[in-house]
Amino acid sequence: MLNFSDAPKKATNLSLNSKVLEMAREMGMNVSQTVDALLAAEVQRRYWEKWNEESKEAVAAYNARIAKEGLPLAKYRSF
Fold this sequence. Notes:
The protein is an all-alpha fold and 79 residues long. It is built from two helices and no strands. The chain has helices at residues 18-26, 31-69.
């Protein structure tokens, strides 16, 4: 799991829909915190999506090996 919680904040400029921004402020939303959380979630989603795509062949080979040979330490399982 990716951990972004200990990273320092950095000021940036964003262009947001003015009506959405106005409504968010009227609702008392912390826009920076909301955008930061949503962006972190999207970065994490895309990271794992890319990892899955890049690792697809290795995962398939591992699964095929397990299907053929079984789990390496299966004989020691007590359940």
